[in-house]
Design goal:
Distance between the termini of chain B: 38 Å
Structural class of chain A: mainly beta
Oligomer: heterodimer
Radius of gyration of chain B: 13 Å
Strand order of the largest sheet of chain B: 1-3-8-7-6
Distance between the termini of chain A: 36 Å
Radius of gyration of chain A: 13 Å
Number of helices of chain A: 0
Number of helices of chain B: 1
Number of strands of chain B: 10
Strand content of chain A: over 45%
Strand content of chain B: over 45%
Shape of chain A: globular
Order of helices and strands of chain B: EEEEEEEEEHE
Chain lengths: ~110, ~110
């Protein structure tokens, strides 16, 4: 039981490049979330999903897209990366209880 | 906003001492959760206290909740160097905060010196 995993762990992009961050959970959770964490800002919600095939916007969705084609996976895409998207990205999942389970994070740098 | 605000922003203590962190919030809540984040790692759920509870214990952790003052505190007793981390509170408003979204403050950075 791996819990929540994220790939890659680190990535460096040039401005304008695209990439996809993968989040996978093996707990059969319905809800999944993508957050970003910046110094002095706490965690901010980017997008979330309440089940397979559904997605919704969070607090800071601009510049990101997501997909939840399979229940266990939640993908976060950056179509044209910008330096303002340099951050640490965390995925989380939960079932019925309010407790969220977090992945280890992806550190992204956009040059 | 249902964001919790942690206080103090930073706390430095010696191993063996107790550490107390506070959280204030602005709206009625369903429950309040505390999470820990070790440097460079994801958040780990520590404890959840419901609005009808006043105190809850888990190992060396003690959480209190005062809904009249809209505040909570997290006490770590007999601290260890391994407790060095950032601690976040997340108040959850009734109705599931739109599908259970959590809103985090900036956290309290706890440093425990050996």
């Amino acid at each position: 039981n791996a819990g929540v995993t994220q790939t890659p762990k680190f990535r460096v992009l040039k401005t304008g490049q695209s990439m996809t961050l993968l989040c996978a959970q093996d707990m059969n959770h319905e809800y999944m979330y993508w957050y970003r964490q910046d110094p002095g800002m706490g965690l901010r919600l980017i997008h979330y999903s309440v089940g397979e095939g559904t997605t919704a916007k969070g607090e800071v969705p601009d510049g990101y897209n997501v997909s939840r084609l399979k229940k266990q996976n939640f993908l976060l895409g950056l179509e044209s990366a910008a330096p303002s998207q340099t951050s640490v990205y965390f995925c989380a999942s939960r079932q019925d209880a309010d407790t969220q389970y977090f992945g280890p994070g992806t550190r992204l740098t956009v040059l | 906003s249902q964001q919790g605000e942690e206080d103090p922003q930073a706390l430095s203590i010696q191993e063996g001492e107790n550490a107390t962190m506070n959280c204030s919030y602005k709206t009625s809540i369903n429950n309040l959760q505390w999470y820990r984040q070790n440097s460079g790692r994801g958040l780990v759920h520590l404890i959840l206290i419901r609005s009808n509870e006043r105190e809850k214990h888990s190992g060396r952790l003690r959480v209190t909740l005062d809904t009249s003052k809209k505040s909570s505190s997290l006490l770590i007793t007999a601290s260890r160097a391994a407790d060095t981390a950032s601690y976040f509170c997340a108040p959850v408003i009734p109705g599931g905060t739109s599908y259970g979204k959590l809103t985090f403050g900036q956290g309290t950075i706890l440093t425990v010196h050996p």
